[in-house]
Amino acid sequence: MNVNQPSQSINVMINGVAETLKGHVIISELLILKQLPINAVAIVVNDEVLPRSRWNHVMCQHDDSICVFSAVAGG
Amino acid sequence: MNALTDKQYIQYSRTMLLNDIGETGQLAIINSQVAIIGLGGLGQLVVQYLAAAGVKHFMLVDHDVVALDNLPRQLLYSEADIGQHKVSVAKRTLSRLYSNVYVNAITDKLTETNVIEFSKRLNTETLVFDCTDNFVARHVINQLCVNQGLTLISAAISAYQGQLFCIDFGAKLSHEKQHGCYRCLYPVDIDIKQTCSQQGVLGPAVGVMASMQALVGLQHICNTFTQYGVLLRFDALTLQWHQAKMNRDQQCTLCQQAQLQGYAHEC
C-alpha cells in the first residue's frame, strides 16, 4: 500500500474475491468501479484501516488485500 | 479493598487460577469502575458478566424502557419489566444477585450538549463500554473518551455483522503507534443504515459481541490485554473473525485537538 506506480495489470483480493485491475487505480476510484457507496463504508487494506482522507492518495498495489465493509451501529 | 474475604477466595477461585490474573487481578476487578452506556442487547450481558466476575462499581446509562421485542436477546429482562427503565431493572436485579454492588443508574440520554456535564461523573480510571444502538451516541462517547483520556471498549452488531475494538486513549504512545479513534474509522458524515431495528439480529450473535466486550474489559482491568487499537469484525453467518489495525486519520480534528491538549499538559 503506497503511492508508487503499479504495473498495467494487477491482481488484488477484494472482500476475499480475486480481481484483476487494469491501469492505475486509486482506492476512491476502486469504490466507484465496484459501485460501492463511498459515504457508507470503511476500508481495510492489508489488515490496516485506511482512513477516508487517504482514499484519494493511495493506489491499489499488486497482491493487495482490500476489505470494504459498512459501518455497524446496532447494539 | 486490598484483600479478599474467605468467601471471595472461593467465589472467584476459577478466575484466580489463571496465572496472569491471580489475586492481584481479582482485586483489580473488584476495585474497578465501569460505565456502560446502552443497556440493550450488548450492555445487559456485559453488565451481568462483569458483576459476576466481581466488578462492584457501575454507572449504567440508558433512557430506554424494556419492550416486548427486546426479550429474545436481552436476557436480563422479563415480561414483568416491560415499560420500566432498563437501568432501573438492571440495578434491582444486580443488587439482588451480587453483594455490595453499587449501581448509579442514569436515565438521561447522553448527547453532545450534556457530554461535558456527564464527563464530570467519571474519573480517569473509569472503563467505558459503548453498547449503544446508534451512530450519534457512538460519536459522542468516542469524543468523551478521547477528550478525557479514557479507555473505550466499543461493540456493535447488526444483522450478521459485528464489530469490536478497545482503545486506551490515556496511553502515552509514540506517534507511529498512536491508534485511530472511532471518528478516524467512521467520519461523522458517514451514511449508516445498519441498526438492529432496521436489519434484524439473532440474540446469540449479540451475545458473542457482548461476551467479547466483557472479556476484553476484564483483560484490560487485569493488565493482560494486548490488542489495543485493533478492529475485530465478526461475520455471524460464516463465523469468521477479521482483524485490522486502526490507523489514525491525520485529518481527524478530534485526535488533533486531544494531541494538542496532551502537549499543553506536558508543558
TrEMBL record, chain A:
It holds the Pfam family ThiS. InterPro entries: Beta-grasp_dom_sf (IPR012675), Mopterin_synth/thiamin_S_b (IPR016155), Thi_S (IPR010035), ThiS/MoaD-like (IPR003749). PANTHER family: SULFUR CARRIER PROTEIN THIS. This is Sulfur carrier protein ThiS.
Automatic annotation (TrEMBL), chain B:
Residues 12-253 form the THIF-type NAD/FAD binding fold domain. Transmembrane segments: none annotated. PANTHER family: SULFUR CARRIER PROTEIN THIS ADENYLYLTRANSFERASE, UBIQUITIN-ACTIVATING ENZYME E1. This is Thiamine biosynthesis protein ThiF. It comes from Shewanella litoralis. The gene is thiF.
